[in-house]
Every structure is written in structure tokens, then in C-alpha cells.
Amino acid sequence: MNTLKIGVIGCGSIAQHRHLPEYANNPNVEVVAVCDIVEERAWKIADAVGAKAYTNYKELLANADVEAVSVCTPNYLHAPVSIDALNAGKHVLCEKPMATSSEEAESMIDASVKSGKKLMIAHNQRFVPSHQKAKQLIENGEVGKIYSFRSAFGHGGPEGWSADGKDSWFFKKDEAFIGAMGDLGVHKTDLLRYILGEEFAEVGAFVETSAKENADVDDTAVCVLKTESGTIGTLAASWSYVSKEDNSTIIYGEKAILRLEDDPVNSLIVQYSSGEVVKYELGGIQTNDEGGQSNSRVIDQFVHSILHDAEPAVPGEEGKRSLEVVLAALESSETKRIVKL
Prior knowledge:
This protein is an alpha/beta fold and about 350 residues long. About 35% of the residues lie in helices and about 25% in strands. It has helices spanning about 15-25, 40-50, 55-60, 80-85, 100-115, 130-140, 175, 180-195, 300-305, 315-335, and strands at about 5-10, 30-35, 50-55, 70, 90-95, 120, 145-155, 200-210, 220-225, 230-240, 250-255, 255-260, 270, 275-280, 340.
């Protein structure tokens, strides 16, 4: 099997903590090029991984050796960089949220179709063992009709995680476009769509900036979501959880309650209506705490789709639908109305 040659565009935290280590652990790839507008960072990472350094991503895309790229830039660059990469004949793994509008997302999907190259969005929560098990239990009918759910994703904020700390692009509206809802909320809209196996029909939301003085984007959001079949629930996304990260989801069904990532030891607890409780130790979720160096399986899935010419695990269309729920939440907060999808 030929070694797949990879370029990484954007060498901030997500590249350093997820993409580069996971490429390094995959025997079928070699990172041959890295790019960052901060020249010093580009050189440092290039030296560390034995790749060529670039400060202009278009020059990286002109490198004929590069077959696929990870797009790890600030949010506002996701679509333009991904589209340029696809048009240059490269497969693309793009960080979430995939774009800042439905139109941008659609243009990315079109570029993928026209170029015949793969486009995958890095929604890693689909690959968490507890989440996959919960989806399976629901599909098997073990939970019965789903009545309700609540999901949260919150931590102390990007300053503890981003390569630029308090000066991070995450806080700047012109670069991030959206705050906690884009950083964390979109993970959960994608996860809920995946686990429940259906689309959302209506969204209501309150989106505020209450915790971060240096931010012109949201840092705390609470959404009410209704699926096409009428299941209702809540999603909270926040950068104002000052202690331990919360990444839990609870699903209330007719026959059982599923508690996902809600217990420090058992990543899935199933509480049946009969009183029986089943606990699964399936290995934790990736976290930004303690270095968070566990394998998210995103890179392996992306590489597999290219080498075996398979549909990516999270294709552009899926990324777009998950983004549209977040865009609807923003619209709801601004208009003070329930938004139909």
C-alpha cells in the first residue's frame, strides 16, 4: 500500500493535539508539508515532524506530492481553504464547524463532487465508544420510543487550550464567526443527529456572552431542539464552566434512560424501566484536560476512506446539516422566534 502524503494547514492546538499525533500513529501516512501564517510556528512544527514548512497555504497546495490535507485554520477560513484544496485535487479533512454559512458549506460539497476528492468533517464525537453503543441500543429498539434528551458541552474556554491563549482567534468574531456554539455546540448537534438517527425540525435558543470580557462572540448558549418525529430536548454549549469539563448526554426513552459520559468511570450507564442498571466501561471521550492525547479516530477514518475509496464517515452533507442547526440557533436568539429547519 502506498504511503499517503499529507499536508496540514494551520498548526495551532487542534493540529498539535489531534491531527499531527494521529497522523504520526497511522502507518499508512506521512506528513510532508505544514503551513501556518506564524512563520516561527510553521518552522517549529515542520522540524518536529520532518515536513516542509509553508506560510502561504496556496504554495502548499501547489506541492504535487501532497495528496490530502487537514484544514485546521480559524473558522472563517475553513471554506475558502477547503475549496482551494479540493480544486487543487487534494482530499480534505476539515475541522468543525465546516463553514460560516449554508452557502459556504454547499460550495465545499460542490467542489468535492466536481474534483472527485473526499471531503470529511472532523466531528469526532461520532467515534466515541459510548456514543456508538447508544446509537446501536436505540436502533435495536432497546430504548423504545425516545421522549427527550439533554446534552451539554462546556469547559473553561479556549484560552486554556488555544495556541494563542487569551489572544486566540476563537474570541474574534471576524475570524471565529461564532463562539461556544460553533466550537462546542456543533459537536452536539452532530452527535444528537447521529445518535437519534433523525433530523431536527425546529430550534429555539438563547445565546449570550456573559463570561468572557475579551470576546465579541457567544460564550454560553442554551438551545431547545425538536426532531422531525417530535422528540424534544436541550443542548447547552459554554465556555463558562470553570471546573471540570462537562461533555455529557442523557437520553430519556420509553424503556430506558441512557447516561453518556456522565460518570467518571462508566462511559455509558443504561437505567432500564425494570430497575435493572447496566454499566459500560468503554474508554473515555477525548478531552482537553490532561493533554487529551487519546485517539479520536477521525484521522484513521479519513485515511481509510481515501485508501479504500469509501464514503467518508462524516461527509460534507452531514457537516452541513449539523452546522444548519447551529445557524438556526443563532437566528432564533437574534429574532426571538422559533426557527424551522
